[in-house]
Amino acid sequence: MRVILALTVLILGSTGGEIAVTHGMKATGEPARLRPLALLQFLGRAVRNGWFWAGVPLMALSFYALLILLSWEPISLVIPASALSYVVGTLGAKYILGEQVSPARWAGVVLVCAGVALVAAG
Amino acid sequence: MASERRLRIKTLVMVLAMVVCANAGDLMLKRGMSQIGAVQLTASGLAQAFRLTVTNGTIWVGIFFLTGFMLSYMTVLSWADYSYVMPAGAFGYALLTLLAVVFLHESVSPRRWVGVVLICVGVLLVGQTKPRTTAVASETAA
Fold first, then answer.
1. Do B122 and A107 touch (CB under 8 A)?
2. Least Cα separation, residue B132 to chain A (angstroms)
3. Could you tell me if B85 and B75 are in contact, meaning their C-beta atoms sit under 8 angstroms apart?
4. Which residue blocks in B1-142 are alpha helix, DSSP H?
5. What does the domain layout of chain B look like in residue ranges?
6. ipTM of the complex model
7. pTM score
8. pLDDT tens, B15-32?
9. CA atoms of B124 and B142, how far apart (whole Å)
10. How many structural domains is chain A composed of?
11. Contacts B119 to A, Cβ<8 Å
12. Residue ranges making up the domain that contains A60
């Protein structure tokens, strides 16, 4: 039970945090050019966006959940289980960020999720 | 469709930068922490571990790479879909396995090879979709 709870915090924390950061970065807009000065100005704008700072603590929370899980369960169980976040993140991208997830992209996400689980299981 | 092509190329370059920085960063942290040794979970043990980590050069190289990862991740998300970048980044797991075989001569189980193949096919599938399907705030002149 506590493992499922920590896993839920791990997955929702990382995907929720990344979705918030994505939202913040989309609001920031892409850098005009990929040059050092333009990138610095771009980062300056990004860190003044509230969504960015909403995402960071969620990611930190997810990281603590990962550390706690690793102290309870072997890594070959924790990382494959956390591969579910590829599917959860794609659902979030579709329903929260409004991205268009085509059948090809869904198929790719499912393969990646299964593949990461197998690689991490060893 | 020159802009579409340009978008695809710059997304690919940033995802590669992400994967290389994340793998290099993790590798350096692991190397640095193994120089330090197992951390004792007591107040004095943690304090000593903190002192050793902030004075360890390898750890700082790792932090440098992980900062590079975060910056490239933020940059690519300013124009590309989260549902494109996130699965594409999983290519790192496949790359790590290949590096372990080539440089460390690790033996890899059949199950793990199947996983590597699934990741590669999945990343190729995602890579063929449009990198951006939502509107982005208009570019501001630098």
1. yes
2. 8
3. no
4. 2-36, 43-54, 57-77, 82-89, 91-104, 110-127
5. 2-127
6. 0.90
7. 0.86
8. 999 999 998 888 888 888
9. 34
10. 1
11. 111-112, 115-116, 119
12. 2-121
